[in-house]
From TrEMBL, chain A:
GO molecular function, one term: ATP binding
Family, as annotated: Belongs to the PurS family.
Catalytic activity reported: N(2)-formyl-N(1)-(5-phospho-beta-D-ribosyl)glycinamide + L-glutamine + ATP + H2O = 2-formamido-N(1)-(5-O-phospho-beta-D-ribosyl)acetamidine + L-glutamate + ADP + phosphate + H(+)
Oligomer status and interactors: Part of the FGAM synthase complex composed of 1 PurL, 1 PurQ and 2 PurS subunits.
KW NAD (keyword) present: no
Enzyme Commission number(s) from the entry: 6.3.5.3
Protein name: Phosphoribosylformylglycinamidine synthase subunit PurS
GO CC list: cytoplasm
Pfam families per record: PurS
Role of this protein: Part of the phosphoribosylformylglycinamidine synthase complex involved in the purines biosynthetic pathway. Catalyzes the ATP-dependent conversion of formylglycinamide ribonucleotide (FGAR) and glutamine to yield formylglycinamidine ribonucleotide (FGAM) and glutamate. The FGAM synthase complex is composed of three subunits. PurQ produces an ammonia molecule by converting glutamine to glutamate. PurL transfers the ammonia molecule to FGAR to form FGAM in an ATP-dependent manner.
Length: 76, 222
């Protein structure tokens, strides 16, 4: 089974990379970009019987730093 | 006094901090590989050095924080072992949950590599007792992810409890409240981005860092 883990910065956490992207887009002439936020996509191939609780534990213990990041699990 | 330095793949300040510890104690520290599961018996201080452990993959310090030796460091820290994390070591200690908050990409996105002025905020910790409160010292910084972040309640608690050990005299990397180094609630764990171990003799351009190691080792009975 394929899992996609989206790791994103929590709202309110300043994202300097996102800011730089936002500025670069406006520099390219794209107007109306109000905000850019950079996150991560982690794809996992796991056994079909992997428990949801285990996937959640993987996210909390390693894949996301819950001090600054949120995560969302998507089953492909 | 016996001391130890943890070595991860990608550590690059492990030898610098070993020299600083040896200078302060007269004895070379144990170099402990990240896959080891136990710290040497009878050590008083363990250093988590700077560098780019695991190539900063996933997040700086994230993978090192989950290596086998860190379980032992966490257990010993709970019993009062003095733990000093510098630069990547600070990132490892926050990732390991030994210190609150997180270190994010520098606000200016640049890798910052220069000397910076720091104010000693709390000279009452075992790590800073060689200084006086309010004193300015100069240490080098060399990091990409030194932007200290924590929620406002945590920041207020750190300030209120005297857990801010060092503050940048002026903004360096976007750190909340210019925090450069913090101690744990129990005071036995210090994490800081600047490098005291790179400032321990006149040939380094100064020896402001020497007093940290001397004070710490004196406190633990070296």
């Amino acid at each position: 089974m394929k899992l996609r883990i989206y790791v994103t910065l929590k709202p309110g956490v300043l994202d300097p990379q996102g800011k730089a992207i936002e500025h670069a887009l406006s520099g390219l002439g794209f107007s109306g970009v109000d905000s850019a936020r950079v996150g991560k996509l982690i794809e996992l191939e796991v056994a079909d019987d992997t428990a949801d609780a285990d996937v959640d534990a993987m996210c909390r213990q390693l894949l996301a730093n819950t001090v600054i990041e949120n995560y969302r699990i998507e089953r492909a | 006094m016996k001391t130890a330095v943890i070595v991860f793949p990608g550590s690059n300040c492990d030898r610098d901090i070993a020299v600083a510890l040896e200078q302060a104690t007269g004895t070379a520290p144990h170099m402990v590989w990240h896959r080891d599961t136990e710290l040497p018996a009878g050590i008083g201080v363990v250093a988590v050095p700077g560098g780019f452990s695991y190539g900063d993959y996933l997040r700086s310090g994230a993978l090192a924080a989950r290596s086998p030796i860190m379980t032992a460091v966490r257990e010993q820290a709970a019993r009062g072992l003095k733990v000093l994390g510098v630069c990547n070591g600070f990132q490892v200690l926050t990732e390991a949950g030994l210190l609150p908050g997180a270190l994010m990409r520098n606000a200016g996105l640049n890798f910052v590599c220069r000397d910076v002025a720091l104010t000693v905020e709390n000279a009452g910790t075992v790590f800073t007792r060689g200084y006086t409160a309010g004193e300015q010292v100069r240490f080098p910084v060399a990091h990409h992810d030194g932007n200290y972040v924590a929620d406002p309640e945590t920041l207020d608690r750190l300030e209120g409890e005297g857990q801010v050990a060092f503050r940048y005299a002026e903004p360096v990397n976007g750190s909340a409240r210019n925090i450069a180094g913090i101690v744990s609630a129990d005071g036995n764990v210090l994490g800081m981005m600047p490098h005291p171990e790179r400032r321990i003799e006149p040939a380094h351009g100064g020896d402001d860092g020497k007093r940290m190691f001397a004070g710490l080792l004196e406190a633990v009975g070296a």
